[in-house]
What we know:
This protein has one helix at residues 29-35, and strands spanning 3-6, 13-16, 24-26, 40-46, 50-54, 59-65, 68-73, 79-84, 89-93, 107-109. By secondary structure, the chain is mainly β. A hairpin with a 2-residue loop joins strand 6 (59-65) and strand 7 (68-73). The radius of gyration is 15 Å and the shape is globular.
Amino acid sequence: MSLRGQCLCGAVAYEATQLDGAIMHCHCTTCRKSHASAFASTARVAREHFRWLRGEESLTAYESSPGKMRRFCSVCGSHLVADRSAQPHVILRVATLDDDPGSAPAMRIWTSHAVAWLNPKDDEPQYREMPP
């Protein structure tokens, strides 16, 4: 299995040969702020299963908490991975994948940080495009 992904502008691309953890929706404050979203969908990928295909020189990093580096494309700002150097994995931002990972999110984490206006029941009306 090979999962490929990239940033919004395409300057940075990567490959993960597999996901090594469940897909999770993280509601922590730093994920919400770094993604400008109610949560971030993430999954662990062992370092030996992850590699940059292009644009590694276009990455910039921000230390959002002690020892945790969030890696962004310096051109478009897409957040691609986060990591702690001592850990054997990176935390992949699943929404940057171009390929279907073949699994659905298994859990929500850091819900103590969740925003009050988010309804995780997913019972809102759904539209394929903008509503009429």
